[in-house]
């Protein structure tokens, strides 16, 4: 009996070893649909990222106009004294030519820097809006969503950059963004920026991000959208 | 001090002089709008505030945010009058421009309010270009394909600006434009256009954050006349409707009988209980009349209630008869089995009974002739048939079991009522009987009736018996000396009693005078009237029927027979007699309906 058992075990082991498919290898876990693993192309990634940034910008636009409507009694332009946005230290192209002159890597880096710079201030914005009774829950929810979106967008852009690097479109000059300065939204005068100023600055920066992403996309994956 | 004062005064005087002359410093200019067509350059326009009568110059100054350096507008001409054009080099995005306009003339200057502008948010592209609308013929029908191109200045290729387009369409004579969003594509297919009409198309565009451009010039396109499409639709509709019609027709055909019933309900024929139309067609009058004879007439169940209470005035013999009559009546009632609901059960089948009795030769009665008019519904209590029961004439209360009155309808206003005090139409039996009671001589009555009527007949004429009492009453009155209080009767006058249940009112109708026999023989039919309607109080309303000749006599058969054998109506009577079955059958004359309705159900 033991001998037969041994034989059977040997046979089984042999079968297992010989079967090429029995090798276990690491495979990417695809959580996509039944069509199997569908790896999104770079164009798809860009589209998703651009849509995300569009959504983020529209949110910031809405919040800013709400602020302007309800919390700024004076429409007087003279009264508007803007402090510098905390992201003004980041050099960003302020025109089309300037933006097109930048290399892809630099552009990508600028985008990531901007997004990184807004991670904490957006969180603070949401906190302060939630605490104040002036805002309705809808606005504070928008701020929260905005913060999440900025976070997601940054992750997405990082993935795009990763993809581009894999595809060889990006050099390795992209520095580690984790080392990006944790910029605190402190203006020159040292005071914390008000909610309105934060919103004003973020609205602008989100527009920059969206624009840069579009330029990047049309430069890297020109399709009929461009 | 003096100098400053003098200067002030001089200035003031100068101003006054200048105002008098009509010149003044310029009015305040105002920046109306700033626009950028492609997010690379922009232009600002202002409107002058009034030149004050002197040549005025305008200058635009700006400075960027967080910078104090003031620049002047680089280009006043490119964009036209009162404008300032910023070219690419001077345009910076995501930076606020603080712009002011200064108007100055010889007398002074005026500064406009500053305006903050961020170029990114003032983008208004130019209109789309090269709009084309073409009719495309498709198997489903033609449609219009509109195509266009982006405005030349917008750089969408590099992704710097993203435009979305909108098109609007209007057909001639329409008031409203139909707008369609085309997104970022540069073509659009317009369906739902009516054939053979001219259609106008316009396109515009907008950046993702900015203002809509102006509409393009109208492009015209004419739709062709496509009938085949509509024709196929009509063909479909026709086929469908034919199909439905076929189904309906088939359904109607299947259900034609019920449809017929529904649409043309059969007119109910005259419903005479027991009357068979077929017999009429066959032409056998005997059979017809046979069918009209009611089974179980006179009614038996309520017989007791209907009868007039027996008179107790009679002698032993009469009392015997009374008893017998009662028994007989009860038997009679029992013998009455099938009672026809339709037929009038007003009276007991007195006609039959009376005839029988009459046949046995009542000549002896002579003057006492009881005329029984059996009008359709008159169940008249002319059942003087023989049961000479000595019911008390004056006890017609229907509450008493014995006192029963037959419902009789004899509206005879014209008829001369023998009893003077009583009215022809309705009389209360008690009233009449009371009047007559003093004159009642039961013995005579007894003589008159009892001997004439065979025993067996008594059985059938239960009610008749009762009634006959009353009639006997009258008869007696008529025969014998009239009551003192009663005017002398010309002859035997018989009153047909009709009972009204609730008040125990006897509706009396005077019978025709036996002395007026000839008149009767004429079959005037005055004494008998056709029943017209039965009212709610069990009252039969008779109508005068003057058209009857011997037919009336038919109903007066009793009368005829009782009076004189040689009566012209005899044949009818004979016939009638022959028809007479054993049970209380009632023969109906023409137009006469059973008075069963009057009678309570048995």
Automatic annotation (TrEMBL), chain A:
Coiled coil: none
Biological process, per Gene Ontology: positive regulation of receptor signaling pathway via JAK-STAT; response to nutrient levels
Subcellular location: Secreted
One Gene Ontology cellular component: extracellular space
Statement: the UniProt record of this protein carries the keyword Metal-binding: no
UniProt keyword annotations, A-Z: Disulfide bond, Hormone, Secreted, Signal
InterPro entries linked: 4_helix_cytokine-like_core (IPR009079), Somatotropin/Prolactin (IPR001400), Somatotropin_CS (IPR018116)
Record-linked Pfam families: Hormone_1
Kinase as UniProt keyword: no
UniProt protein name: Prolactin-like
Species, as recorded: Carassius auratus
Origin organism lineage: Eukaryota, Metazoa, Chordata, Craniata, Vertebrata
Gene this chain is encoded by: LOC113048591
Automatic annotation (TrEMBL), chain B:
Membrane topology per record: Single-pass type I membrane protein
GO molecular function: cytokine binding; cytokine receptor activity; metal ion binding
SMART domains assigned to the protein according to its UniProt record, in alphabetical order: FN3
Descriptive protein name: Prolactin receptor
Stated role: This is a receptor for the anterior pituitary hormone prolactin.
Family per record: Belongs to the type I cytokine receptor family. Type 1 subfamily.
Organism from which the protein derives: Carassius auratus (Goldfish)
Ranges where the Fibronectin type-III domain occurs: 25-126, 127-226
Cellular compartments annotated: Membrane
Entry keywords, A to Z: Disulfide bond, Glycoprotein, Membrane, Metal-binding, Receptor, Repeat, Signal, Transmembrane, Transmembrane helix, Zinc
UniProt region (Disordered), positions on chain: 360-408
Comp. bias intervals (Polar residues): 366-376
GO CC annotation: external side of plasma membrane; receptor complex
Domain notes: The box 1 motif is required for JAK interaction and/or activation.
Organism phylogeny: Eukaryota, Metazoa, Chordata, Craniata, Vertebrata
Signal sequence residues: 1-22
Bilayer-crossing regions: 233-252
Record Gene3D superfamilies: Immunoglobulins (2.60.40.10)
Domain of life, per lineage: Eukaryota
Feature: compositional bias, Low complexity: 377-388
């Amino acid at each position: 009996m033991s001998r037969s058992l041994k034989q059977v075990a040997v046979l089984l082991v042999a079968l297992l070893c010989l079967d090429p498919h029995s090798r276990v290898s690491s495979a990417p876990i695809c959580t996509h649909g039944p069509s199997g693993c569908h790896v999104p192309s770079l164009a798809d990634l860009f589209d998703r990222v651009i849509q995300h940034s569009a959504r983020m910008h529209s949110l910031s636009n809405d919040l800013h106009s709400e602020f302007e409507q309800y919390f700024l009694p004076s429409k007087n332009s003279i009264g508007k004294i803007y402090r510098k946005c905390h992201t003004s230290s980041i050099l960003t192209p302020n025109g089309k030519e300037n933006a097109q002159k930048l290399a892809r890597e630099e552009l990508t880096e600028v985008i990531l820097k901007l997004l990184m710079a807004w991670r904490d201030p957006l969180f603070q914005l949401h906190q302060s809006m939630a605490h104040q009774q002036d805002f309705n829950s809808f606005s504070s929810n928008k701020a929260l969503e905005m913060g999440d979106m900025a976070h997601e967008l940054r992750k997405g852009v990082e993935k795009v950059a990763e993809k581009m690097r894999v595809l060889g479109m990006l050099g390795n000059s992209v520095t580690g963004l984790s080392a990006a300065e944790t910029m605190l939204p402190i203006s020159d005068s040292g005071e914390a920026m008000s909610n309105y100023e934060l919103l004003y600055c973020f609205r602008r920066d989100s527009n920059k991000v969206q624009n840069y992403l579009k330029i990047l996309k049309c430069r890297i994956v020109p399709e009929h959208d461009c | 001090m003096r100098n400053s004062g003098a200067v002030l005064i001089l200035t003031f005087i100068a101003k006054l002089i200048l105002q008098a002359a009509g010149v003044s410093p310029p009015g305040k200019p105002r920046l109306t709008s700033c626009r950028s067509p492609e997010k690379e350059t922009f232009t600002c326009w202002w409107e002058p505030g009034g030149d004050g009568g002197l040549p005025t110059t305008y200058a635009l100054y700006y400075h960027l945010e967080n910078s104090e350096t003031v620049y002047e507008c680089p280009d006043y001409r490119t964009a036209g009058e009162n404008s300032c054009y910023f070219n690419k080099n001077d345009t910076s995005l995501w930076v606020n421009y603080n712009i002011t306009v200064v108007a100055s003339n010889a007398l002074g200057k005026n500064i406009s309010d500053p305006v903050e502008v961020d170029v990114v948010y003032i983008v208004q592209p130019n209109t789309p270009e090269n709009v084309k609308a073409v009719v495309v013929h498709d198997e489903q029908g033609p449609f219009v394909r509109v195509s266009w191109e982006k405005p030349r200045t917008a750089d969408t290729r590099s992704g710097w600006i993203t435009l979305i387009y909108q098109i609007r369409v209007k057909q001639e004579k329409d008031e409203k434009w139909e707008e369609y969003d085309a997104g970022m594509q540069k073509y659009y297919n317009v369906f739902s256009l009516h054939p053979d009409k001219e259609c106008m198309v316009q396109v515009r565009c907008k950046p993702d954050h900015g203002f809509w451009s102006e509409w393009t010039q109208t492009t015209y396109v004419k739709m062709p006349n496509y009938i085949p499409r509509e024709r196929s639709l009509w063909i479909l509709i026709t086929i469908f409707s034919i199909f439905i019609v076929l189904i309906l027709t088939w359904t109607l055909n299947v259900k034609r009988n019920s449809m017929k019933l529904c649409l043309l309900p059969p007119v109910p024929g005259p419903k005479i209980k027991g009357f068979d139309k077929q017999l009429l067609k066959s032409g056998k009058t005997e059979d017809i009349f046979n069918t009209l004879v009611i089974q179980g007439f006179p009614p038996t169940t309520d017989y007791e209630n209907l009868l007039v209470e027996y008179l107790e005035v009679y002698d032993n013999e009469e009392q015997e008869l009374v008893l017998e009559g009662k028994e007989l009546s009860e038997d009679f009632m029992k013998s009455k089995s099938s009672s026809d609901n339709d037929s009038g059960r007003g009276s007991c089948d007195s006609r039959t009974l009376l005839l029988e009795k009459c046949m046995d030769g009542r000549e002896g009665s002579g003057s006492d002739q009881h005329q029984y008019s059996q009008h359709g519904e008159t169940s008249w209590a002319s059942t003087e048939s023989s049961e000479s029961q000595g019911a008390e004439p004056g006890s017609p209360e229907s509450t008493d079991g014995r006192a029963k009155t037959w419902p009789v309808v004899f509206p005879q206003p014209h008829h001369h009522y023998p009893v003077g005090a009583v009215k022809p139409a309705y009389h209360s039996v008690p009233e009449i009987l009371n009047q007559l009671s003093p004159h009642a001589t039961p013995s005579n009555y007894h003589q008159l009736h009892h001997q004439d009527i065979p025993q067996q007949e008594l059985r059938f004429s239960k009610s008749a018996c009762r009634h006959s009492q009353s009639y006997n009453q009258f008869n007696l009155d008529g025969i014998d000396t009239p009551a003192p209080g009663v005017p002398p009767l010309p002859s035997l006058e018989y009153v047909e009693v009709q009972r009204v249940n609730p008040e125990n009112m006897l509706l009396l109708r005077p019978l025709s005078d036996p002395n007026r026999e000839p008149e009767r023989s004429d079959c005037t039919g005055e004494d008998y009237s056709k029943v017209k309607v039965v009212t709610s109080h069990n009252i039969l309303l008779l109508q005068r029927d003057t058209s009857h000749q011997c037919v009336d006599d038919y109903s007066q058969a009793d009368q005829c027979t009782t009076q004189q054998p040689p009566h012209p109506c005899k044949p009818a009577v004979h016939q009638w007699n022959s028809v007479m079955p054993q049970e209380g059958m009632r023969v109906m004359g023409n137009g006469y309906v059973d008075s069963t309705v009057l009678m309570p159900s048995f």
